[in-house]
Amino acid sequence: TQLLEQSPQFLSIQEGENLTVYCNSSSVFSSLQWYRQEPGEGPVLLVTVVTGGEVKKLKRLTFQFGDARKDSSLHITAAQPGDTGLYLCAGANAGGTSYGKLTFGQGTILTVHP
Amino acid sequence: ETGVTQTPRHLVMGMTNKKSLKCEQHLGHNAMYWYKQSAKKPLELMFVYNFKEQTENNSVPSRFSPECPNSSHLFLHLHTLQPEDSALYLCASSQSSADISYEQYFGPGTRLTVT
User: Fold this and answer.
1) Element spanning A56, H or E
2) What is the pLDDT of residue B88?
3) A22 touches chain B (CB under 8 A)
4) Does B95 or A60 have the greater pLDDT score?
5) pLDDT of residue A1
6) Distance from CA of B79 to the nearest CA of A (A)
7) Residue B75 and residue B23: Cα distance in Å, rounded?
8) Which of B23, B41, B43 to mutate: most A Cβ within 10 Å?
9) Within a 13 Å sphere around the CA of A88, how many CA atoms are in the beta-carbon half?
10) Nearest C-alpha of chain B: how many angstroms from A11?
């Protein structure tokens, strides 16, 4: 069974601070996705990383896929109250019995205070 | 708006009731998924359909019965549920489960409460 450990589980910061969320596994994934979910809504896809060592930027958000494709991080610069939400990482496996399935981390609840 | 709609958004049902959840995707995708999201637990995959065929049943109790009449619609029929089945039920779709990037697009979910 593949597991994705996401940390921290909770993060409460002030507006303007930087933060990093981590997603770690002992398994190799063919790709990894980050989602953001607001209360009462479904997860919304932010980014997909596919290549080991890949770095993608989305405005103030920077996503990195580990060289071995076992871990990933999400860094937010100068956080804003609008960044508040549940952040989920999800790893995809391209083969075997896990074909087509995403393994989700337990999520990080981020609260950014004005 | 992700292109995936779910109805109803909220549902309260007794343990002896029968109800159905509906999902529709407007993205031209071929794969659809049901997930269960409970507090303090990771998202749990329940069922996967590819081109209307069920390809995954993640040991889900028989009181949950999925139906996929075509690639755009997915239902989850519920009967004799238990209070611990109360959760947010999410539907998702993707190009196909063979898509190398496996990008899934989620609906807003149905908040189910079993009394």
Assistant:
1) strand A55-58
2) 96
3) no
4) A60
5) 64
6) 24
7) 6
8) B43
9) 24
10) 15
